[in-house]
Design a protein that fits this description.
10 helices, 3 domains, Butyryl-Coa Dehydrogenase, subunit A, domain 1, binds acetoacetyl-coenzyme A, 4-stranded antiparallel β-sheet, Butyryl-CoA Dehydrogenase, subunit A, domain 2, about 375 residues, Butyryl-CoA Dehydrogenase, subunit A, domain 3, 3-stranded mixed β-sheet
């Protein structure tokens, strides 16, 4: 077993770290306070190739592996998960799905611009009454011959406003249950689309989250990805990879909190010595480091399985559940170590704690990951 990263993986990790430490840190607190979309950062990371990392170079992508992608997500998330979630949705939900299952024409028309980062994409699965229970799609895409007519509402959509292209999961044949669900590429400028207000979130406040309403939106037939009825399977397969991105994000949040806690524990003195030299704090740091290391190993194992074309759905569910849960634990301890300073904005750990919470909720809650894992244990 080789635990070494390749030269290329180290280079990508370093490039992400440099950008995060030099640029993202500058205005992360201000953007968080104002819930302001990171327009310039998204342009910059697009130019650096971070929005089309794994896409086939034939479609203007970087052709990189999932390990490199996970390492980059982790680095950005140590500083700013509003940026890394935009990057994660773009790479692993939108680009991956189009690259793997789209037609050549769809890739020429949509994927190239997405891979270059000139266009942003969004993944529209969740609905007001279909979150964890994703088969219960109420949004309809009625077959009208040469097009589908789309009606319904999607909720909690990352990049809903910034995106030019949506991948929309919708029910076309309700009598067939999940086998009647399609996935359609929808251009945001199509007539009949409106957005709800920007969600005022607890964390990741500068990522762009809205509900999206469709009223008699015409979508050409050629914009369906895959066969008729492939939409639910598409969503599940795509989310398997998405969960590696979110697991990497959670690992990055936890790592950021750990690094800040180590620094603070060396600087801050109490009872005549640095607080890290008190066993109460030293043991906390030790527990945090063990959890972070285990989460990173889970993430890299899932990414490695995907890169080697082996089944990775259960591994990505384990990585996501574990990394999200420990991100919450580690950031909570980081706030505790910082004491009163942890509870105010200046030291960033309270923001990391708010960001960690979302990793237990989106792209499948921790409980949904347990369903995926336990079913795999119990299946014959
Ligand atoms: N790959 C391919 N097919 C799959 C699959 C997978 N990983 N998992 C399930 N399926 C197929 C099943 O085989 C089944 O098909 P057949 O009937 O043909 O065999 C079909 O899908 C239905 O599967 P289940 O009976 O297992 O469905 P279920 O309703 O019991 O539960 C679930 C499935 C795992 C709970 C699923 O609903 C799920 O993952 N829910 C969570 C949804 C989610 O993650 N939402 C995140 C929103 S996106 C987001 O957050 C993005 C963002 O903006 C950050």
């Amino acid at each position: 077993m080789d635990f070494n990263l390749t030269e290329e993986q180290i280079m990508i990790q370093q490039a992400a770290r440099d950008y995060a430490e030099r640029e993202l840190i500058q205005d992360v607190s201000e953007r968080d306070a104002k819930a302001e979309y990171p327009t310039q950062h998204i342009k910059n990371i697009a130019e650096l190739g971070f929005l089309g990392m794994m896409v086939d170079p034939a479609y203007d992508g970087g052709g990189m592996d999932t390990i490199s992608y996970a390492l980059a997500i982790e680095e950005f998330s140590k500083i700013d998960s509003s940026v890394s979630v935009i990057m994660s949705v773009q790479n692993s939900l939108v680009n991956y799905g189009l690259d793997k299952y789209g037609t050549h024409e769809q890739k020429e028309k949509y994927l190239k611009a997405l891979a270059r980062g000139e266009a942003i994409g969004a993944f529209l699965l969740s609905e007001p009454e279909a979150g964890s229970d994703a088969t219960m799609q109420r949004t309809t895409a009625v077959d009208k011959g040469d097009h589908y007519l789309l009606n319904g509402t999607k909720n909690w959509i990352t990049s809903a406003n910034a995106a030019s292209y949506y991948l929309v999961i919708a029910q076309s044949q309700p009598e067939m249950g999940h086998k009647g669900i399609n996935v359609l590429i929808v251009e945001k400028e199509s007539s009949g689309i409106s957005l709800g207000p920007h969600e005022d979130k607890m964390g990741m406040r500068s990522s762009d989250t809205h509900s999206v309403m469709f009223q008699d939106v015409k979508v050409p037939k050629e914009n369906r990805i895959g066969e008729e009825g492939f939409g639910f399977s598409f969503a599940m397969k795509t989310l398997e990879g998405g969960r590696i991105g979110i697991a990497a994000q959670a690992t990055g949040i936890a790592t950021g909190a750990l690094e800040r806690s180590i620094k603070y524990s060396k600087e801050r003195k109490a009872f005549g010595k640095p607080i890290g030299n008190h066993q109460a704090i030293g043991f906390k740091l030790s527990d945090m480091a063990v959890k972070v290391e285990a989460a990173r190993n889970f993430v890299l194992k899932a990414a490695w399985l995907k890169d080697n074309n082996m089944p990775f759905g259960v591994a990505s569910a384990m990585a996501k559940q574990y990394a999200a849960d420990i991100a919450m634990e580690v950031t909570t301890e980081a706030v505790q170590i910082h004491g009163g300073y942890g509870y105010v904005k200046e030291y960033h750990v309270e923001r990391l704690m708010r960001e960690a919470k979302l990793t237990q909720i989106y792209e499948g809650t921790s409980e949904i990951q347990k369903i995926v894992i336990s079913r795999s244990l119990l299946q014959d």
